[in-house]
Amino acid sequence: MSGEMDVIQDAEERGRTDLWPFWRRAYAAGDPLPRIACAVSRETYRFDEGDPLPAEYRELLTKMLRHEGERAGNKSFLGFMGTCLDLAEALYPTREARVIKAEYLAEELKHAIMFHRLAVGLDRDFALRDVPYAHYTFHLPRETWADDAYFHFLVDLNGAFHARDWRESSYVPLAKMAATVERDELGHSEMGYHFLREICADGRGRTLCQRLLGKWYPAALDMFGRSDSKNAPLFIGWGLKSVDNAEIRRLYQGYVDAKLIALGLEPPDPLKSRRFL
Amino acid sequence: MVSDIVEEIREAYARVGIRLDQPAAYGTYYRLLCAGCGRMVGNVGDRLLPGMAADLVEGQRDLYADGLLGCPCGHQKKVVTA
Fold it and tell me: Which of A221, A268, A141 is nearest to B53 (CA)?
């Protein structure tokens, strides 16, 4: 495993440019993400690969990984990556942008290998299960480079926030890979933000971005699920999450709003067009 | 039903001069093609919520009219301003 990842790391380092990877500048300026800390008293659990898992723990962990989706054995994830390439080919504004999107795909495929290894260690049948993304945010129409930029800025950022939380996960294999996944996903979000900044440099572009926020902003907030989720206390109790859906959404919204305002955009009403409050 | 959602999406986009291609990515996503010239103008997935496709597409008719969305050939602009 470490030999395989060394080869990937070497390939990644040879792909570096002034821009890529986007996480480099973000972390050089300090920790870009807010602290996600558990505020309730709970037991301390640690489970490593091969350890017997309590049934409820296994069920919750599998549910979480099913939502995450980035597994080599999940053909729907690979199909989704194909649509990203397809879209880049149709809409890319510059050759540089298209190469950046290919770097993004390479990194997501690295995650697919990492999560595949984790899934095989947990349950071989699960590792091969096809799980199309169920949340509507993954299915929103993308008709411009600005749509695609919002997808990355907001949806990959959701992944970064969850990965930040996994640093403290009671499932050791997940905790071990969390820092890498967080860093990469934050970089993908910064890639989207880079494209948004370019588009917003022009008045018509900024008008388009402000309008498209009405589609992407509520969907991004909806991705964290319902605030009254019955499973949240179970996830927290088992050490699979640190905070509930409302708290991680609050932290995320604070981060996103500051970045939107920096672009000269007005964050929409956070309750407007929401489907999962 | 996913097939009902796909029909909703197809009908919503037809009203602005965009047609759905054959399903891609194991049946989950669809290319959006300009009904005028056939160029790919985007994509969409089949798990939108009921009514969402019509809301989204109708809500951006002015963006097609302004040329902020749609194919460079101008077909959507022509359709929504007709």
Answer: A141
Could you list the residue range(s) of the whole structural domain that residue B63 is in? Answer: 2-81
- CA B76, B80, B82 angle in degrees (round to 5)? 115
Output the domain CATH number for residue A88. 1.20.1260.10
Q: What is the pTM of this model?
A: 0.96
**Helix (H/G/I), strand (E/B), else coil: A1:** coil
pLDDT for position A8 = 78
* CB of A255 less than 8 A from some CB of B: no
Residue of A nearest to B63 (CA): A208
Q: At what angle do helices B2-14 and B52-59 cross, to 10 degrees?
A: 20
The crossing angle, in degrees rounded to 10, of helices A95-122 and A75-91 is: 180
Token look-up 């749509």 returns A147
Percent of chain A as helix, strand, coil, to the nearest 5: 65, 0, 35
Interchain CB contact of B47 with A (< 8 Å):
yes
Residue A221 included in any domain: yes
C-beta atoms of A83 and B25 within 8 A: yes
Inspect the interface and report whether the beta carbons of B44 and A141 lie closer than 8 Å. Answer: yes
pLDDT in tens, A28-66: 999 999 999 999 999 999 999 999 999 999 999 999 999
With an 8 Å Cβ cutoff, is A76 touching chain B? yes
Tens digit of each residue's pLDDT (9 = 90 or more) over A107-162: 999 999 999 999 999 999 999 999 999 999 999 999 999 999 999 999 999 999 99
CB pairs under 8 A between A and B: 85
Residue A1 pLDDT exceeds 60 = no
**Domain count for chain B:** 1
The C-alpha atoms of residue A141 and residue A31 are separated, in whole angstroms, by 33
Chain B, residues 6-35, CB within 8 A of chain A, namely 24-26, 28-29, 31-32
For residue A31, being part of any structural domain is answered with no
Average pLDDT of span B12-21: 98
